[in-house]
User: What shape does this take?
Amino acid sequence: MELELRGITKRFPGVVANDDVNLHVRGGEVLALVGENGAGKSTLMNVLYGLYKADEGEILIDGVPQHFTSPRDAIAAGIGMVHQHFMLVPVFTVAENVVMGVEPTSLGGIKLDLATAREQVRTISEQYGMHLDPDALIEDMPVGLQQRVEIIKVLFRHAKIVVFDEPTAVLTPQEIDDFFVIVESLKADGKGIVFITHKLREAIKVADRIEVLRRGKTVGDADPKTVKDTELAEMMVGRPVDLVVDKAQHEPGDVVLELRDFTVSDPSGRVLVDHVGLQVRAGEIVGIAGVQGNGQTELVDALVGLRRVAGGTVHLVGQDITVATPRDMHRHGVAHIPEDRQREGIVKDFDITENLALTGYYAPPLSSGLTIDWKAARTTAEHLVEQFDIRTPSVDTGVGTLSGGNQQKVIVARELSRDLKLAIACQPTRGIDVGSIEYIHERIVALRDAGVAVLVVSTELDEVMALADRVVVMYRGKVVADLPRASTSHNEVGLYMAGAKESAA
Amino acid sequence: MSVTMPTTPSTPASGALTYEEKRHARNLGIAYIVLAGITMIFLTGHSGTATFNLDGGRSFGLPAQPLAWFVAASLSVVAGIQLWRGFGKWTNVVLAMASLLIFMSFLSWAAAGREFSFIGMLASAVTFSTPLIFGACAGIMCERSGVVNIAIEGLLLNGAFTSAFVGSIASGWPGMGPKSGFWVGVLAAMITSALFAWLLAWLAIRFKVDQVIVGFFINFFVLGLTSFLSSRVLTENPDYNDTPTLGAWKIPLLERIPVLGQILFQQTVFVYAAYVLVVVFTWFLFRTKWGLRTRAVGEHPRAADTLGVNVLRLRYRNVIMAGAIAGFGGAWWTATLGRFNENITNGRGFIALAVVIVGRWHPVGALSAALLFGLFDSVADKLSLLNTGLPSEFIKMTPYLMTIVVVAGFVGRSRGPKAAGQPYESQ
Assistant: This one.
């Protein structure tokens, strides 16, 4: 089977998300579609999957034009999609999730035939070496296995072309390897694969052909056997990019942040952060690596006062701040870039001025006791927009309308534009464009060089490895490794992240 | 997206209680002490033996005062053990036993020195639970598919009014007796309640109006409309508000079972219909294609949508079907009383919503919860016949009061469909 997208154009009010995009993929072939966030990859796939209707262009399967008005049509035509955010019902079993929509039935199409469903799921699972229990509940499964359920869902519907939307974003390095094995077996079985990603190394590793999308246009293709990642990055961004973070040696100073036996538990008493000891010195970047859900979020939340600390102490330059509120922390010179930008970092319906005033609105110079001096706030905002290179028509623009990268810059501007002792950055570059990533990384390094203690939490191992002077790995709420960056490797940290290795941290 | 790791961060050593469980155990212990105190102070006040009549002339007697002292003493002991080391897996059994003791002590106090039809109380508990079962099943059908329907009260009330009004008129039609006229009324009740439900679905699904607000609107609209029609039309024309009451339909053989026969098998068709509904609905919800899709749409509509399930159509269908069920349930009042009175449902639709929560969004759970609330109704009903010295306003209040107590004990421990109340927007 051959799939071809010809001249696809999709416009949204104010933007052209896809502009005359051409793409084709054959059975038994892996096509990597790379591009920055906002380049139009997801829009294109939603057009293909019948979720959006293209304004121009056509979709052809084996040369025959198709008209998809809903996912049902796309599925019927043999197209399957594994979404970035899994589309699984957490309280259902594997089998129930897989068969939904095309349920095997008995009693004249009424009764659900779960026995057959289980059997079919088990067959597919075995065929591709996925080892899934059809009766397992989704909510009890690790992310890597949940992704396999998504793949089985697609295969169950006899998909011939399988689209993976950023499939590796939620996986550990080891799970990523397992995933690539599955992709290979799908390919060997004659399935056509579209692999959407912004991770260039993965695209080069797994693809037969690479197609680059930039600002809604296909800007060219590349042969993964010969192309270099810097060349791909340049095609993606449209200018030469420095993939390595420029970082000079820097001698750390005194201890700024010190956690001792730091423990956090959930309301039911389950320990989420388990007696963590951690030191961050002035002029040092400590990176916390770990797969999502191993206590990093809770550690930071408790640290900045958003969660109750169950045990242990926190000292900031020798002062006990274990029970500090977020405002105390702010006053102590601690910056916090939260991991969920949209939910915790900004108020989407506020404009830029208002968002930038969120941390300082209650004190001079922004406030004179009773009222907020919006003129001063606006002036400050204009200054910050300039200083932090926030791309916006004006400071009165709603933050919700900005791109992810610019939203993140607003947060960075708000948090870093004052005298700091400690900066905590969680997933500082999640889902933003390469240009913004470069910029934010530069800022973080500049902070370090200015003598600020920096704690970076990221589930992207590459990011931790690029930024950190010291790498701390969290697994099941514990610190399982504390390694100098210079003497460790991706592979070693990956093993700690998967819990396969444990050291006396 | 919330992601559960397999590698769940360390849980406390097995056997140890979590913080939450400890607090719960302590609160329960304190509750036992309070109940022991109440029993001692209030329920020891009446002397004499209460005679509880069963069927076939049998009866048993309980001496009110000694029983109250015994219950108070038992509760104190239970409280002590609960606070000292807890009952482990027997906690709920002990709680049920304790509740039963208090209940019997209360009845003995109320009926001290008199006779009381125990079996009549249980039979009418079953009767009173019937509209709650219909209401709760309607609620579950909506909420499982992601629509919060607080308009159950309005749908029941409309069912009661329409079945009485149309039923009375239809019995005057040529060739139609009061009996068949009544069933025409029931059909009309189902259709009109389904229409009101469709209105809710249309506003909530199509226009994404807040579901709670639409529900409130329908409740008040139906209350206003039926009250108006009742005072303007029904009072002026008594013929329009006169249907036959439905007699008991005794089930051969089963009705002769001692005690149980009279409670369960000498009831009206509505009671049996409620039980059939619970069985059929449970089967459909958990064993059929429709059930799987309904539950999926209530938990994660986007997932269902990407698999080609039409989320909005399914929600429309479920809400409209639920309307018909509630309309049928509303006809219970007409079948029981033979007429419509203003605001005859008197909040039973809201209690049905409590039944949904306490029954954990499961038809069988709802049946049990409905029986419990039916019992409160029935006790309140019987108490007003006994001269207990309690103000009648207080007695009328008890079913609602007990609803709050029971629901408060359940809140946080019962998890509903995740997407309930959220309008769905396809991409």
Summary: The interface with chain A takes residues 1-12, 18-21, 287-293, 295-296, 299-300, 302-309, 418, 426-427 of chain B (CB under 8 Å). The first strand of chain B starts at residue 49 and ends at 53.
